[in-house]
Specification:
By secondary structure, the chain is α+β, with helices and mostly antiparallel strands. It has two domains: 86 residues, no CATH class; 42 residues, no CATH class. It contains five helices and five strands. The strands form two sheets. A three-stranded antiparallel β-sheet has the order 1-2-3, covered by helices on one side. α4 packs antiparallel against α5. The two termini are 52 Å apart.
C-alpha cells in the first residue's frame, strides 16, 4: 500500500506556519506531534513521516511472536505512532452447536457432563442437581 493510499484512508488536519527558522508543522489532534522544515514542502513531508499508525492483523497462534517493545524500538524515530492489533481467534466448538455466550450456566454444565463418557448417568444427574442448587443460590445472592 502506497503512502497516498494510506493518506486517503485516514486524514488528520495539519497546521503549517512560517516562522523565522523556516516552517513549523503540527497536528492539533495529536499532542506532541510536530516537526519543522526549511521549506513548506519539507515541513509537509516531515509531518507525514511523523505520524504512523501500525495495524497488525494476525491469528492467535502468532500473537506471542510479536512484541510491542520490538515494534516500538523500530518506530522510535517517529514523532507519534500507535499500534493496533487485530487478533483473529478461532471459535471453539467444544459445546456442540452452541457458543458459550448462548448457554445458561446450567445448560453449559449439562452439555459438559453429556460430553464426558466416563461420568455415569446417575452421577451426572446428581451433579446437575447440585449445580442447579448452586446456580440458584448464586442468583439469589445477586
Amino acid at each position: 500500500m502506497s503512502n497516498s493510499e494510506i493518506m486517503k484512508k485516514f486524514s488528520l488536519p495539519v497546521v503549517i506556519e512560517k516562522d523565522a527558522d523556516g516552517y513549523f508543522a503540527y497536528c492539533p489532534q495529536l499532542q506532541g506531534c510536530y516537526t519543522q522544515g526549511d521549506t513548506y514542502g519539507e515541513a509537509l513531508e516531515n509531518i507525514r513521516d511523523a505520524i504512523i499508525r501500525l495495524n497488525i492483523g494476525l491469528n492467535a497462534e502468532s500473537e506471542g511472536q510479536i512484541r510491542d517493545i520490538d515494534i516500538r524500538n523500530v518506530l522510535k524515530e517517529a514523532h507519534y505512532f500507535t499500534i493496533a492489533r487485530d487478533v483473529r481467534r478461532e471459535t471453539r466448538l467444544r459445546l456442540g452447536q452452541w457458543t458459550a455466550e448462548e448457554l445458561t450456566p446450567f445448560d453449559a454444565l449439562k452439555v459438559y457432563l453429556d460430553s464426558k463418557k466416563e461420568v455415569n448417568p446417575e452421577r451426572a444427574k446428581l451433579l446437575l442437581e447440585y449445580g442447579k442448587k448452586l446456580i440458584q443460590e448464586h442468583h439469589a445472592e445477586l
